[in-house]
Write a structure and sequence with these properties.
The structure is a single chain. The chain has one domain: Rossmann fold (3-Layer(aba) Sandwich). The protein has ten helices and ten strands. Helix 3 runs parallel beside helix 6 and helix 5 packs across helix 6. The protein is globular. The C terminus is likely disordered. Bound molecules: adenosine-5'-diphosphate and magnesium ion.
Amino acid sequence: MSLLEAKGIVRSFGGVHAVAGVDVAIAQGEFLSIIGPNGAGKTTLFNLLSGHDVPDRGSVRFAGREITGWAPERIAGLGLARTYQHGRVLGNLSVRDNILVGAHHRLRAARPRLPGLGALAELVTALIHPPSVVREEAALADEVARIAALFGDRLTPRLEQPAYSLSYANRRRVEIARALALHPRLLLLDEPTAGMNESETAEMTTIIGGLKAEGHTILLIEHKLDLVMRLSDRVIAMDDGQIIAEGPPEAVRANPAVIEAYLGHRELGGEAVA
Ligand SMILES: Nc1ncnc2c1ncn2[C@@H]1O[C@H](COP(=O)(O)OP(=O)(O)O)[C@@H](O)[C@H]1O
Ligand SMILES: [Mg+2]
């Protein structure tokens, strides 16, 4: 059974059919990439899967639940984490707190508030600081350290710095770290290497490869095809809101419809084409 299954997804903006009837399923442990030229509908599809937008038609199932129309926080609580094409770190929060945002999504979902009593109970807990909270905070500090260490020495020395002070590439890394703190069952990455130079891209490829090796289920939007070819179990190519090819990476790259879609925009190669 699929971990995520979207059927007949449609989303239009005025006359623009951003996603025009897409079926996508991803199995537990799978690494699926979505490629396609700019404007193909990739990010819109992500938004529809993560609850940041609602499909005009179609349904989304995740982890055995029908989640169509659910709020993003609720879907995140079920274990779907994502990053954003243009990055969304909280600039005034420290790197540590940005990462903890992901962990708090998870903890809140695991510990639903008692109606009425919830806010008061939380306040009392914060004031008296019982041993269980101290233990939880220590566990979270370990967790942040472990996740930051996945990025070599990029984030660990900067945990107490405000996110706005980081380089662009480091802010992209923080976003992924935050997504990992959710302990996601499914990780959605929207162009994680956008704006990165060649060596930063190679470093990110290694990190994402490491996540795959750890058993993460990953849905990746990426236009650097060498990265896609190296990591993907399966590739979906989109154009004009539709899937134009789907299958093993090499077969999709060689598909005439895919080549034509790219040639309409720019040449197909290892560099940025989408
Ligand atoms: N919020 C929106 N309002 C209007 N048009 C949108 C909106 N989001 C996306 N679009 C349009 O939908 C199409 C697909 O966009 P997008 O999903 O961002 O493509 P991709 O991520 O593949 O580059 C584009 O034509 C884009 O301009
Ligand atoms: Mg996009």
